[in-house]
Write a structure and sequence with these properties.
Elements: H1 3-18, H2 27-52, H3 89-97, E1 106-115, E2 118-124, E3 127-132, H4 133-138, E4 150-157, E5 166-168, H5 169-187, E6 190-199, E7 202-207, E8 210-215, E9 234-243, E10 248-252, H6 253-271, E11 277-285, E12 289-295, E13 298-303, H7 314-318, E14 325-334, E15 339-343, H8 355-358, E16 364-372, E17 376-382, E18 385-390, H9 403-406, E19 412-421, E20 426-430, H10 442-445, E21 451-460, E22 463-469, E23 472-477, E24 499-508, E25 513-517, H11 525-532, E26 538-547, E27 550-556, E28 559-564, H12 573-576, E29 585-594, E30 599-603, H13 604-622, H14 628-645
């Protein structure tokens, strides 16, 4: 601007200030004067200014006289207005009059137009400046501002030679942020920042262009959080340390949460008390309980044993879902630790109240089988009231049963209450006592000697168990299966589940024992044999075994007789036994029966005597007229002949 014009402007301003018609300290009049001067200068150079302002294709290059991003002030730079360059005398005059509009000031402007890659900002005083769109990209505010919106900007450069002021949003935000950080640090207030980057020990936080650091342990009370999930999210932080000169800003989101938690807890204390019913949101479910969000800043805990009146609340826990609202009762408030203990089961009365009236001993009630163990089964009579059926109370059978063969989990059954211990919260139940003990009437139903059918339930080395009715089993010993075979081989004919007939041999209701037999269904073949062949009878048998002291003969099915050595021959029996062969048929005389031992003693020698007498009788009948000497002579000759052949 020429000296002539400067003097002209100075004169106009000075004249206006000194005029008696101008009100003192009238800022509005001064603003009008400056506006008129600026309008006059702009009208002279309007076309020149527009043609000289590049408004497109800005990629980090100079826009008019806008300083490139690399030359922007950093957050710790002090804006010393005394160092701002003065283009000419006119600007010195303007700065003296309107300091808040000079270079280095932050002003609020209005977006009046969008010119390509620049925004045209009206900063007042009839002045319009340019702001690069790239600055809004840098500050993440592209979607925030539109035409007609107000925006705070930093006056980078302002001249009164008709050139448009150069503005910066980045510098404005940094300066304002620095001021805000200082204020927050002193007042213990929070600031907002964006999680910009995750590094090894924490995250870089962007506070309106100023970079801060938040350690990974300072994001939550637990210290456990996925920092990557917070990227680009805006959070609130407390200022732990701020050294502007060293570019050092330390932040804590946890401190903010703690601070807000303290405020919320104090409010909670004023409004709530133990016993109040409150509603919250299920925040987390753990092994030891459920966390309920009472406010956005602190939770209450429902411990596992306060979820349900049941001893095992697993079923109730599974019915809970994260995010769902739920009502709870305040059980305790710990002011020092700021912890709130809650309860869910306390919303309903304790089911053990008046338990004796509901489940008196000897009463029969229904319940659901909750759990089966090795020692019995737990039965739920109602939520929170459980009883135990001991394994001995499942069945009247003396044999310990397999529980799962009698009842199943979740099955509804009838049980009898045997004993109730209210203080210990224990109930003894019985399944078998719902029905009458079958052993009470078993003696009447199954007298000794009666024949009963039953199912084989077990086979052992010593016999078979046969169930003749529910919970009543009898034992068939091995020796009572067959009259003739007392070995375990007889068990091979039978299998579990087979229906057989048995005979009741003995019964003891007190000891719950029944002895059964199978062989008794038929007459003892030994008795039949000894009836048909008493002592003195002649019987023929097959040689089945030869031993040193005698010979065994099979004289009936599975019945043997024994010929002692001294009964094999009259003379030299040890020689005679050697001539006996297995399978040979021999006639003998029954000389002794031992019924108790089921033994029969036989004799060949005695049989021969009988035979000789019979032959003698026959001979005597056919030899009438012969002398006794003749008869004896013939007999002696035969004996000599027999001896010679043997």
């Amino acid at each position: 601007m020429e000296d002539k014009n400067i003097k002209e402007v100075e004169g106009k301003i000075e004249g206006s200030i000194l005029s008696s018609h101008a009100p003192k300290n009238n800022d509005s009049s001064l603003q009008n004067i400056i506006g008129d001067i600026r309008e006059e200068l702009l009208s002279k150079n309007k076309e020149e200014l527009k043609s000289a302002t590049p408004i497109t294709n800005i990629e980090g290059t100079v826009i008019g006289e806008i300083t490139p991003f690399d030359n922007y002030l950093t957050a710790d730079e002090t804006l010393d207005k005394t160092t701002i360059p003065k283009d000419n005398q006119m600007e010195e005059i303007i700065e003296d009059i309107i300091p808040e509009k000079r270079e280095g000031a932050i002003v609020e402007g209005v977006i009046v137009d969008i010119l390509g890659q620049n925004l045209l900002i009206d900063i007042g005083d009839k002045a319009e400046g340019l702001l690069s769109v790239d600055e809004l990209k840098f500050t993440r505010e592209m979607d925030k501002y539109h035409k007609g919106d107000k925006i705070e900007v930093f006056i980078e450069r302002r001249r009164f030679d008709g050139a448009e002021p150069v503005l910066s949003r980045i510098k404005a935000k940094k300066i304002l942020a620095s001021s805000k950080i200082k204020k927050a640090s002193l007042s213990k207030d929070y600031i907002e920042g964006v999680v910009e980057e995750v590094i090894k020990e924490g995250s870089i936080i962007d506070v309106d262009g100023i970079k801060g650091f938040c350690h990974k342990t300072q994001f939550s009370a637990s210290g456990k959080i996925d920092l990557k999930s917070l990227l680009n999210k805006k959070l609130k932080f407390m200022v732990i340390e701020y050294q502007q000169s060293k570019n050092k800003l330390t932040l804590s989101h946890r401190a903010y949460l703690d601070n807000e938690r303290d405020k919320a807890f104090e409010k909670f204390l004023k409004e709530k008390q133990v016993g109040d019913i409150i509603e919250g949101k299920i925040k987390n479910i753990t092994n030891f309980g459920v966390f309920i969000e009472l406010t956005p800043y602190f939770d209450g805990l429902v411990q596992r044993n306060d979820i349900s009146w049941r001893s095992n609340p697993e079923k109730d826990i599974k019915s809970l879902s994260l995010g769902n609202k739920i009502k709870t009762v305040i059980l305790n408030i710990e002011k020092e630790s700021k912890k709130v203990k809650l309860g869910i089961k306390q919303l309903t009365p304790d089911p053990w109240l008046n338990i004796k009236q509901k489940y008196p001993p000897q009463s029969v009630v229904k319940g659901r089988v909750l759990n089966i163990t090795d020692f019995g089964a737990f039965v739920e009579l109602e939520p929170g009231v459980e009883g135990l059926i001991h394994i001995s109370d499942l069945s009247w059978s003396k044999k310990i049963p397999k529980i799962k063969d009698i009842i199943k989990e979740n099955q509804i059954i009838e049980v009898r209450v045997l004993e109730l211990k209210e203080e210990e919260k224990k109930i003894s139940l019985s399944l078998k006592h719902v029905s009458i003990d079958p052993w009470i009437i078993v003696a009447e139903n199954y007298p000794v000697g009666s024949v009963v059918k039953g199912r084989i339930t077990g086979i052992t080395n010593f016999g078979m168990f046969v169930e003749i009715e529910n919970d009543v089993e009898g034992l068939v010993p091995v020796e009572e299966i067959s009259w003739t075979d007392a070995s375990r081989n007889v068990l091979k004919k039978y299998h579990i589940g087979q229906i057989i007939e048995t005979c009741v041999l003995t019964i003891d209701p007190k000891e719950k024992k029944i002895k059964l037999g199978i062989k008794q269904l038929k007459e003892d073949p030994f008795n039949i044999l000894i009836k048909n062949y008493p002592e003195g009878s002649i019987i023929e048998g097959k040689v089945v075994r030869v031993i040193n002291n005698g010979v065994f003969l099979s004289i009936s099915e599975n019945i043997d007789g024994f010929i002692p050595l001294n009964h094999i021959a009259e003379e030299k029996p040890d020689i005679a036994i050697k001539n006996i062969r297995i399978g040979e048929m021999i006639k003998t005389k029954v000389i002794k029966i031992y019924a108790a031992e089921r033994k029969i003693t036989l004799s060949v020698k005695e049989y021969l005597k009988v035979k000789e007498l019979e032959e003698m009788k026959q001979y005597m009948k056919g030899t009438q007229g012969f002398s006794l000497g003749d008869i004896l002579k013939d007999k002696l000759d035969n004996l000599i002949k027999d001896a010679a052949t043997s």
